Each structure stands twice: as structure tokens, then as C-alpha cells.
Amino acid sequence: MADIFLVPQFAIGVNSGLDMTPYPIMSRVNATLGELDAFKAAHPRQQPDCPPEMR
Fold this sequence. Notes:
InterPro entries: Glutathione-S-Trfase_C-like, Glutathione-S-Trfase_C_sf. The chain is mainly α.
């Protein structure tokens, strides 16, 4: 269950300009989850109501 919370929180950190290198395990987990089809399909930019300028 932690997986579904890690990815969005990690994205917020990255998008806020935080240096995530002090968190190598979280970085690795985030990268691994990002390769899964379910996480790719669930990404906000993949949703039909995502504004074109955000895609």
C-alpha cells in the first residue's frame, strides 16, 4: 500500500526542486514503480481530462 503513496509524494518533491539523492532507496523504488504498466497508465498526464499544456 505504501507504493501508491510513495510515487505521488516523490513527484511532489522532485517538482518542488528537492534534491532526492539523499534518498537512494526511495529513488530506486520510485524508478522501479514508474516502469510498471499500472503506474504508467495511472499517471495524471495519461488521464483523458489532463489539459493538453500539461501533457
